[in-house]
Amino acid sequence: MKTIKTGVIANPDRRKFLGTTLLGSSTLALVPYFALANIPAVDKKVRIGIVGGRFGASFYFHEHPNCIVEAVSDLRSDRRNHLMEVYSCKKSYESLEKLLQDPKIEAVFIATPAPDHAKHVLASLNAGKHVLCAVPAAWTLEECYQLKEAVSQTGLTYMMAETSVYRQATISAKKFYKEGAFGKVFSAAAEYNHPGLEELFFEDGKATWRHGVPPMLYPTHCTSFLISVTGERLTQVSAMGWGDDSPLLQNNPYNNPFWNETAFFKTNRGTAFRVEVNWKGALREVERGEWRGDKMSFYMSEHGGGDSTLVWASNEIGKDDAGFKNKKNRVETYEQPLWWETDMLPAALRHASGHDGSHTFITHEFIDAIVHNRDPEINIYESLAYTAPGIVAHKSALQGGESLNIPSFD
């Protein structure tokens, strides 16, 4: 097995191709997904409010050169205090409703429980605020339609904070795809395993929103691996679920019988895409993707970081372990570049962050989109394209794997 150093393939006929598509042109290859570092600096400062003291405390708005954290909010005083400490912010509100009345706040980051996302985003848009929201965008198809309509009516910036889009390996996959390295992507796979999620079902003796949550209602860590790279849409699904007689699943508010769900999607380009979201079992905790092409395939690291694997199609004839002739494809280790160290980010944000370096990218993409009056990469159409297929997939699983069509929100 050959090792690829910092994204440059150690094969003469590929050096020219990847030498100009990876580290040599780290920014240009991603247009229009990221703002270029040489765009003239602007003086605009986006005043943002952070809502939600857990996930909301893991971002870097206070470090962005075009952002000021104006206020924070959480229903719990301990979490409000934590947000104030993290963002060096002296202003806090006891609720989202009160924060939205602050005329200085131009944008909000919604990091509240998932079932509340659509309601909180709609309230924020109606209050005239730009919105960054944690995943998923919505909990029902009806909410998907409501969000799309609200973004269209208000003309405000909406972005979903999907971390898988900005994992270091996903950024590499985007670059490979843009330059044609895959050839035709004919299939893909993704998995999100979170064994032990039942530990979050209850807190202080009370059920949380996670109690019995259907795995496919939280699909975006997987669906984004394909959609953000190729731009295609998931149009059809057949899904299956697995559950047991555990009392922990009983009487959950979703009437969900499943710990784990597996979905088989078809895209508008005929691509086969397998997605697994699992809460229980002998599983590695991981969020990872695989992209398979007729020229090259890319297998993301099992550990969600570190080295991944490239497989290149070859005409060299070999033999399998039974002695039959086969094509001897080239398998090479891909030494993952750390894109957060590059000029894809402002200098202050070039450091490690949560979910494999994605949090600084999400911070920058949202603020930069507002400053430059452009659509963020994960706009309302992308967000719903990641979210809605999971809603339909869960319905399919409840119906024993019935093949169902997925509505388009484009």
Automatic annotation (TrEMBL):
Residue ranges of domain Gfo/Idh/MocA-like oxidoreductase N-terminal in the record: 46-160
UniProt superkingdom: Bacteria
A Pfam family that the UniProt record links to this protein: GFO_IDH_MocA
Keywords for this protein: Oxidoreductase
PROSITE patterns reported for this sequence: TAT
Residues forming coiled coils: none
A molecular function GO annotation: nucleotide binding
Protein name: Putative dehydrogenase
Naturally occurring in which organism (per UniProt): Arenibacter echinorum
Lineage: Bacteria, Pseudomonadati, Bacteroidota, Flavobacteriia, Flavobacteriales
